[in-house]
Amino acid sequence: MEIVERNVNRAAYPDPKVMNALEDLCRSGRLFEAERRCKELLGRFPRSRDLHEIYGTVLVGQKKYRAAEKSCRAAIRVAPKDPGLFSNLGFVLKQLGKFRGSELACRKAVSFDPNHVDAHLNLGTVLQSMERLDDAIASYQRVIELSPEHFLAHNNLASALLTKRRYSEAIKSYEIALSLDPGNAGIRANLGLALAEADKKNDAVKTGMAAVELAPKNAEIWAVLGNIHRLVGEPEAAVYAYKRALKLGLSSAHLHKNLGHALQDLKRSEEAIESFDKALKLQPDNVDIYCNLGRLFAALGQATAAVNNGNAAVRLAPKSSEAWSNLADIYRWTGEPQAAIEAYRKAIKLNPSDSTAKHFLSALNNETTRTAPHSYIEELFDGYAVSFDHHIRNALKYKTPEILSQILKDIIRPPLDFIRAVDLGCGTGLSGDAFRSVVRELYGVDLSSRMVEVARNKKIYDHLTVGSINDFLSETELFFDLFICADVLIYAGDAREIFCAAGRCAMDGAIFCVSTEEHEGDGYILRDTGRYAHSDIYIEAAADIAGFRLLRKAPAAIRLEKQVPIRGQHFIFQRFIEE
User: Do β-strands 418-424 and 439-446 pair in parallel, antiparallel, or remain unpaired?
Assistant: First the structure.
């Protein structure tokens, strides 16, 4: 018995020289050889905790996560209270998508050692994958308390903060991570992405370019640079970066999808469809891709393909209000109002707070509401900002700012010289550009932060505000002698509120320039496009109540829709001069 006991003890622990040689194989990247050697040694030393751990590491390095899970569990059977082994198991389970099991394993590790850095880090990553961002942030902060120079914890913390749109904090955390690892191209690229999300265009692009200079053959860095370019409104540059990533060997569904979005921004629909198709081959159950394909085909007038893709999305996600709302949009665009009504109703049933679906359901049911929901306007124009100028000018032949500006010049003696103007619903700055030459100080306000960022980069305005027009006019302490309101009332049926809000901050003699879609009946209506149209009599009465008198109006097409001109009206009003 004594001899057997000695053999068992010796068998539990491989010679240190053997373990060092095994670790050398891992460090040199000879993982296949290391795996084979681990298997041989485990046959002789099945109770070696360290050997099981190295074997698991080798399997993870080859992305053999199922085998790695078995190895981790075998190691835990040998050392059932080892926090490092439970932390390793948590990491592996996360890679397998077993998030709940991963969380439990990490928490077990922390229960054995509350100061185990890797366990807290792995716990943070799985919590972030579960979208429990506040808990993930707390885990990363605990890592930083234990190890202040842990660059990966700062990087991951920044990522979670960025998802929460806590931009300034995210940027600060990325900067700390980068100071700890200055040559890390991935962190630098992520910092560029955070700067882009924070609407810091120049710094974002500069940082992204610096990242690819550090790692010019790293496909993932090029993909992030593509995201940066797209966020700051540079779709051509985004397409170039995404294609570089593809050329360098990265071929993921996410990359093809992002390339499709960039091409969609450029209205290169056929190429966008090709990219989305490639993404679907890699990820055939991606609902978002089917939704995008449906919208693209609808824009191209290919109704059958549009409806087929929209229906494919709801088959994959029958409880997704977004998928049903997307299908409803497609039916509306392709001329099937009753099918659109039913789809919007399903979307609203699944998500009673879906104000956009409610807005279009009202439009299709001929129910005229007072105004479009702010959330709908924000979402519409945030998504439209990148391609807005190109599309509205070239495809829709939009010239309203220039028309209003010319009417004003025709009726007021030169030189035109306004002290302070406000562009209501300034968008990307098309109206600001048309009026800039006759204004000393120009303000702009818009609900869409993305549109405002495009306008800011043009350097047209002296001051820009993201927010509602009525809030701005009601709260400002300034007075204006020029109000520009181009293509705003098509999203606000009740014009009286805007006129009255403008009236309280208008100088005597102030000018109010406004455009509308023309309505031949009484008052205003909500059309099935989701836009409002107003009668001339209604607009003139609303202006009069607020103290604005009509100087001139001029009918003209305000845009094309499906190649058909939309009739509109252009008004110039003047504030009564009180005697």
Answer: parallel
Q: How far apart are CA 311 and CA 380, in angstroms?
A: 22
Task: Say whether 92 sits in a helix, a strand or coil.
Answer: helix
Neighbour count for residue 329 (Cβ, 10 Å):
24
Contacts of 497 (CB under 8 A, 6+ apart): 470
| CA within 13 Å, CB half, 493 | 18
Please compute, for residue 497, the number of CA atoms within 13 A of its CA located in the half-sphere on the CB side: 14
- For 490-549, the pLDDT digits (tens) are 999 999 999 999 999 999 999 999 999 999 999 999 999 999 999 999 999 999 999 999
Question: 175-209 as b/e, with b when 16 or more CB fall inside 10 Å?
Answer: ebbbebbeebbbbbbbbbbbbbbbbbbebbbebbb
Element (H, E) at 453: helix 449-458
- What global pTM score does this model have? 0.77
- What length is written for the chain? 579
Nearest CA to 166 out of 179, 157, 154 is that of 157
Of 83, 113, 89, nearest in space to 101 by CA: 89
In the block, tokens 């100028």 appear at 389
Tokens 């000879």 sit on residue: 30
Whether the Cβ atoms of residue 301 and residue 310 lie closer than 8 Å to each other: no
DSSP β-bridge partners for residue 572: 513, 552
CA distance 484 to 431: 7
Q: How far apart are CA 119 and CA 142, in angstroms?
A: 10
All residues at 6 or more sequence positions from 73 whose CB lies less than 8 Å from its CB, including other chains:
89
β partners of residue 555: 569
